[in-house]
Amino acid sequence: MNALSFPYGTRGEQRAGDPVSSTPTVYDVAERSGVSIATVSRVYRNPDSVREATREKVLAAARDLGYVPSGNARGLASRSTGVLGLCFPDYSDPDTESEAAAADADDDHAFMLYSDQIIRGMERAARRHGYALLIAASLSGGPESLVAKVAGRVDGFAVLARTVPTEDLEVISRRLPVVMLAGPRDPDGPDHLDHIEVANADGQRALTRHLIEDHGLRRLAFVGGVEDSPDAQARFDGYAAARQEAGLSVPRAPDVRPELMTQAEGARAVEALLDRAGAELPEGILFANDQMAIGALHALERRGLRVPEDVAVTGFDGIPLGRLVRPALTTVRQPMRRLGEEAVDLLVHRLGSSGTAAEPESRVLPVDVVRRESCGCGDVAG
Amino acid sequence: MNALSFPYGTRGEQRAGDPVSSTPTVYDVAERSGVSIATVSRVYRNPDSVREATREKVLAAARDLGYVPSGNARGLASRSTGVLGLCFPDYSDPDTESEAAAADADDDHAFMLYSDQIIRGMERAARRHGYALLIAASLSGGPESLVAKVAGRVDGFAVLARTVPTEDLEVISRRLPVVMLAGPRDPDGPDHLDHIEVANADGQRALTRHLIEDHGLRRLAFVGGVEDSPDAQARFDGYAAARQEAGLSVPRAPDVRPELMTQAEGARAVEALLDRAGAELPEGILFANDQMAIGALHALERRGLRVPEDVAVTGFDGIPLGRLVRPALTTVRQPMRRLGEEAVDLLVHRLGSSGTAAEPESRVLPVDVVRRESCGCGDVAG
DNA sequence: TTGAAAGCGCTAACAT
DNA sequence: ATGTTAGCGCTTTCAA
Predict the structure, then answer these.
(1) pLDDT at A89
(2) pLDDT lower than 50: segments of chain A
(3) To which H or E segment does residue A135 belong?
(4) Are the beta carbons of B143 and A47 separated by less than 8 Å?
(5) How far apart are CA A284 and CA A38, in angstroms?
(6) CB nearest to B134's CB, from A47, A83, A109
(7) Residue A320: which of B90, B111, B148 has the nearest Cβ?
(8) Which residue from A70, B131, B136, B291 has the least number of CB within 10 angstroms?
């Protein structure tokens, strides 16, 4: 810019036609093209409101100068960013990344994570609506957390799972639309957020019923999720419901409840189950997610047990890796891409004049049971 | 501040303790906590520079008010956004999306695209450096294009492939660092951009040599890429080089040059090749990317030709789908995630005081030949 | 169709 | 440790 001993450069001096000045602004373009800054602005925001000749002049000057409109200034002046955001959990936990996963996904991370698919869905949908997408893995809280950063830079955003304290989100959602990609923490004491979730309970119930009715299994075990995962809880509820419907004993809690929902933990859960069971091996083990189920597949193989002959195994999520393992994993597939799309739709709707003050909304997306080999189904396409 | 009867609401009136005012600002927080706006700012930017008691007061007020710092205002005042960007091609072309791909990737888009992996790599790397990532599929040009939007909202960004006219990028790169995820358009007339590319020629040459030396193939055909793809060109060059080294005739152009590099086009290319060849079937067909090779696999199967017995097939890229098709596809794997990481490193470096004025840099990342079944190698892990 | 000027919400001197 | 204040670069009335 210019060398002053003052805080900032002054406009007056900057205008003194120095062509080498870096980061040109509307003022530079205006001067060079002999119009006012308002006209420069118009050229970008509403080209048709400027006479063609003028417009060309301005554009030419902008080119010469290397002018790029500052998104920040624009956003500040117009109170909108044209950007939607997504905060997702940092799934690169060491356990998943190095230990267990590395063995399977030998192409370095060739396969999509849950969050990748949602990113894709959101990006596509956002683009359709003219928005760009800002993504950030959410870490810890604190005043200067990533969420805050995202929140300050977007017109609205989605939060994957319960990555961020609901409390913080409620504060933020007073300022801009926030949609949570998970169910409400407490269905009865509603937060004021929009939610989009998948039919966890229904899916798990359907899958459980499949095991019971179609494969005739009765001795089942359920490996749950981490303590505070409502998804995992809902899945367990679905499992329990199916048992009840079939006249089996109704458990009050999962047979095993791992610390993490990783492959390593899945393997560990199997060991625990086998040690505990003695001769009374379960005929089927249902896992609250695919990662654990896949870990279990390996553990069972190491123990010399055949899947599904000796024991059936199922997961939940429908991650691509589940198609590749042998036997291919029977699971419940979540419509992740749609999750992202719905999130964008909801945000865009809230951003439109219409949805501003409407009631919080909770959408539940349907899931599919995917029958593969690990439950005893043949080589059915999945 | 001052009470004027002009366009916008005045701070003075807003300060009149109205707690219901929407989108609270530093002024609101400052007033409510009895400090100056500077102190509020400090609490967020440099908490330690504020006495604990004060900080708490401010944070409490912010909570009550639902205050979220405006990224725009911050960025404007501090001339930085804390965001890095990525523009990538809109790969959801109808052809790939519906026709050919749908048949294989039957999980809807269960498998990663080229761009997904780069996004992942960049996001991870950006996070390590404290940046968020803004992503946008780049469309056409024009003053108000998406690139411009991205450019205005980030501290620096990467452009995947030649998505954006180099011309535009050069303009933009006068204002902020831009790294192109592709080689320079013209190696001799250098643009002023940083580039990161993969060793296309080397990789294709190594693969070709493998076919010639290890499998003893001599009658080879190369299916190139679109006219203006330097990647595809470099791959062809590598192919030609390997032929030369082996004492085979050196072609001046690919045997087939499709319009698009899709599965459908790959299939079409095979048909063309077979029709043309008559009895003189090639022993091996090398494709400039995996998509086409996979399409070719299907086409060959339809024609009753066995791979690799009748004809070997290879691709380039190393997309996950290549592992799943039968026979599994021999290919050259690009380190896509690293591409993203290197991009971020480069950008961050440029943003640091050090790299500002340095010469444009061009990095070339090494690639791996992945030997699977489609070239005649056994069931080697890949 | 164009210009003039206030103000968007924050940061960063500088002063205290 | 905290307050004052001048911008950051744009959009947007309002007036011409």
Answers:
(1) 83
(2) 1-21, 93-110, 143, 381-382
(3) strand A132-138
(4) yes
(5) 70
(6) A83
(7) B111
(8) A70
- The residues facing B195 across adjacent strands are B180, B362
Backbone angles phi, psi at A332, to 5 degrees: -115, 120
Scanning chain A, the segments in alpha helix (DSSP H) are: 11-14, 26-33, 37-45, 52-65, 71-78, 94, 101-104, 114-128, 146-153, 166-172, 200-209, 230-245, 263-277, 290-302, 321-324, 336-351
Which two tokens mark A77?
């002046």
B36 touches strand D (CB under 7 A): yes
Predicted confidence (pLDDT) per residue in B158-178, tens digit: 999 877 888 888 889 988 999
| Token digits of residue B324 | 């799943």
Tell me the backbone φ, ψ of residue B69, rounded to 5 degrees. Answer: -60, 140
d(CA B235, CA B232): 5
Q: At what angle do helices B52-65 and B37-45 cross, to 10 degrees?
A: 100
Cα–Cα distance for residue pair A119/A134, rounded to 1 Å: 10
Task: Determine the Cα–Cα distance for residues A75 and A359; give it in Å rounded to an integer.
Answer: 27
Domains and CATH numbers, chain A: 1-79 (1.10.260.40), 82-197+337-364 (3.40.50.2300), 200-334+369-375 (3.40.50.2300)
Residues 315-344 of B with CB under 8 A from A: 318, 320, 323-324, 333, 335, 337
Chain B nearest CA to A69, separation (Å): 6
Strands B132-138, B83-89: pairing is parallel
Q: Which of residues 30-89 of B touch A (CB under 8 A)?
A: 43-45, 47, 59, 62-63, 66-76, 81-83
B77 CA, D5 C1': Å apart: 14
Query: What is d(CA B316, CA B336) in angstroms, rounded to the nearest whole number?
Result: 12
CA to C1' distance (Å), from A212 to C6: 72
Residue B30 has pLDDT above 70, yes or no: yes
d(CA B143, CA A15): 23
Q: How far apart are CA A105 and CA B341, in angstroms?
A: 19
Report CB contact under 8 Å: A146, B132. yes
pLDDT digits (tens, 9 = 90+) for B291-324: 899 999 999 999 999 999 999 999 999 987 788 7
